[in-house]
Amino acid sequence: MAEPRVTADMSMSLDGFIAGANARRGNPLGDGGERLHQWVYGLESWRERQGMSGGRANGDAEIVAEGFARLGAVVMGRRMFEEGEEPWGDEPPFHVSVFVLTHEMREPLVKKGGTTFVFVNDGIDNALKQARAAAGDKDVSIAGASTIQQFLQAGLLDELQIHLIPVLLGDGVRLFERVGDTELEITRVIESNGVVHLGFRVVKE
Amino acid sequence: MAEPRVTADMSMSLDGFIAGANARRGNPLGDGGERLHQWVYGLESWRERQGMSGGRANGDAEIVAEGFARLGAVVMGRRMFEEGEEPWGDEPPFHVSVFVLTHEMREPLVKKGGTTFVFVNDGIDNALKQARAAAGDKDVSIAGASTIQQFLQAGLLDELQIHLIPVLLGDGVRLFERVGDTELEITRVIESNGVVHLGFRVVKE
C-alpha cells in the first residue's frame, strides 16, 4: 500500500484559471468556468459519488474513481465551506471528515454518508495533523485554490493532479497565485477525451 | 503538404510563466527562468540551428526539428528584437525573414544565414500579410508573449504549442495575460524527459 499523501486535485484552464471572471457566491465557477468541469459530470464514478446512477465508464471515470478510493480526509477554507454547504445538501459528496479552516468556534457538523465538517481555528498545521489522523492510511486532499496555495507555500503538499482543459478563460481565479518557487516532477500524463490529466510530485529539499 | 499556419511555440511553467521575476534587458529569462529552456539547449536539432555540432538526438530533438522544418517566417515585437539583436550575432538562429512590429521607420537589416529583419510600422495585420507572403507554403511563427497575446485577441493564431515545464516560478511574465475567451482543441500530447509537449488548435467560430 502507498504511503498516505497530501494531495490536491484541480481542473484548470490552459491559462491557469480554476474559475472564470466574476466568481462569487451564487456563481462559484465564474463566467464560463463550467467548461472546466464538464468532463467530470457525465462520469459513472463521479455520479455514483453524488448518489446518482448511470454515466460513462471510461479512462476519465477510472481516474476519478482512483482519487475517491485514496481519499481519507479533506482540508478546505471557510469560503468554500460556506459556498458549498447548501448545494451539498444532507449527504455531501465527501464521505470522509472535512476540516474547515475558520476563525469561527463551532461544534462539528455531522452529515449523512460519512461526511463530518470539523472546524479548525488554529491554522493549517493543526488542521493537517487532525486530517492525517482521520485519514489513516489514505490521502488528505486539499481543496480550493487559496488553501492549496497556503499548503504549497508551507511545503506541505506532496502531490498535485491537474486536469488541464484546452480553453483560455482570460480572467478569473488563478490556481497558482503568490506561490513560491517550487520544483515538481511529472508522475504521469494521460490524455483522454479532450482533457490532459497531469500528475506531479512536489520535490522537497 | 499541410496548409501554412500561424503558430506560436513557447516553454511555460505550470503556473503560466514564460520568464521569471525581474525579467528585463540583461536578464531576459528573469530569475529562475532558465529552467524553462534547459530541455532544449542540449538537443542536436537546436544546437545545429545555432551553428553548433553534437547534442542529443531524441524525441524532444525531433519536436524541435519539426518546428524548424515548418518555419517560413517570424513575427515579433520591438522589445524582443532589441533584446535579441546583440546576442543573436551576425547569424541569428531564424534563417528566415523576421517581421518586427515597431513604430521606428527603418530599412530591412540583412544578416547571414538567411535572416532578414523587416520593420513593420502599420500593425499586426500587415505584418502577418508580409510574413505569409515570405513564408510561402511554410508556417508563420509568432514570437514573444505580448505579440502572441495580440494575435490571439485578434483571432489570427491557428495553432499553439506549449512545452509545459514542471515548475512553479511564482512570479514573472505570464504567457496568457489579457487574452479573451478562446476555445482550443488538443492535437497532441507527448511526454518526454520531464517536459510535456502540448499541441493545440485554436477553434474559430
Brief description of this entry?
The structure is a homodimer of 205-residue chains. Chain A is of the alpha/beta class and 205 residues long.
Question: Could you give the topology of this structure?
Answer:
Two copies of one chain form a homodimer.
Chain A: E1 6-13, E2 17-19, H1 38-41, H2 44-49, H3 59-70, E3 71-77, H4 78-88, E4 97-101, E5 109-110, E6 116-120, H5 123-135, E7 139-143, H6 145-153, E8 159-165, E9 167-168, E10 173-174, E11 182-192, E12 195-202
Parallel strand pairs in A: 1-7, 1-8, 3-4, 3-7, 4-6
Antiparallel strand pairs in A: 2-10, 5-6, 8-12, 11-12
Description:
Two copies of one chain form a homodimer. The first copy, chain A, has 205 residues and is an alpha/beta fold. In chain A, 27% of the residues lie in helices and 32% in strands. Chain A has helices at 38-41, 44-49, 59-70, 78-88, 123-135, 145-153, and strands at 6-13, 17-19, 71-77, 97-101, 109-110, 116-120, 139-143, 159-165, 167-168, 173-174, 182-192, 195-202. In chain A, the strands form two sheets. A nine-stranded mixed beta sheet of chain A has the order 5-6-4-3-7-1-8-12-11, sandwiched between helices. A two-stranded antiparallel ribbon of chain A has the order 2-10. In chain A, a hairpin with a 2-residue loop joins strand 11 and strand 12. The radius of gyration of chain A is 16 Å and the shape is globular. The two termini of chain A are 25 Å apart. Chain A binds chain B through residues 14-16, 32, 152, 162, 164, 166-170, 174-176, 178-186, 189, 191, 194, 196, 198, 200, and chain B through 14-16, 32, 152, 162, 164, 166-170, 174-176, 178-186, 189, 191, 194, 196, 198, 200. Strand 11 of chain A pairs antiparallel with strand 9 of chain B, so a sheet runs across the interface.
